[in-house]
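In the current project phase, the collection of sequences with tokenised folds has grown. A sample record is quoted in full directly below:
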Amino acid sequence: MSTEGDKNQSQALYLLGGKSLWTKELEVAMLENVVDMLVHSCKDVPTVLPDGCELGAILEREDPVDVLVVKEGLPYKTLGDLPDGSVVGTSSVRRVAQLRRKFPKLVFLDVRGNLNTRLAKLDAPDGAYSAIILAKAGMVRLGLDSRITSDLAPPALYHAVSQGALAVEIRSNDTEARKICAALTHRPTLLKCLAERSCLRVLEGGCSVPVGVFTELTGEGSMSITGCVTSITGEAHVEHTLTGKVASVEEAEKLGAQLAKVLMETGAKAILDDIAVDRQKRIGEDKTAAS
């Protein structure tokens, strides 16, 4: 079963829109009882689900950081090692926005496809890319961790909301599926991911919005969550950290929402408004070019 996000491999995610690209067709099948559960990368799940759907489980998270993968045969170990003008591939505006701030002399280009396709594009002798940036969790799950050159951990690069975690989506009226999912859920991951998703929900962000996060459970029932919003050019950046007591799902979501409100009040709203205008402009330009 393929989703719109799988089928459209040519257009930049920034122009395609929200996270439902990866879930809509699957949710229709589940609501029609064709399947009973959906397993997603949690970062691809919209923060607001369709009526009749809910997240039944969030499994223990892999390391959520992004990683640098350098073209085979090149000696570079970090982004800072790459010569000026080197081309770095990523389909994420979040990564591009944050890294442009720190590495303005590198060139960031879109790269789409599954992991093997992206690695093939990277290693092609006549390929443009010197390196690509990927989520570490996917590399590890597919046994490709030997290709990882270096981690890009916060604060160098804040990862996507819920990155590294798998989520199980079920029908809201399926009590049997809910019982099964209860045994799958990893509570520390659940609390962190729901705080991050709550932050993103208030920011009204999606796959194509440069929102980064980092969340820790700091002991004695406390959570620390950092969020950032960065303009596409990297010129504007808003970042804040909140810490609070979190003993329940409700408290986790409340802390995430509070962080989003602080970000919005200190500059994130202006950045997101500018991004929305830019996206509509570029979508119009794409339609004109195609006609």
Observations:
- The first strand starts at residue 37 and ends at 41.
- Residues 19 and 65 are 20 Å apart (CA to CA).
- The two ends are 30 Å apart (CA to CA).
- Confidence is low (pLDDT under 50) at residues 5-11.
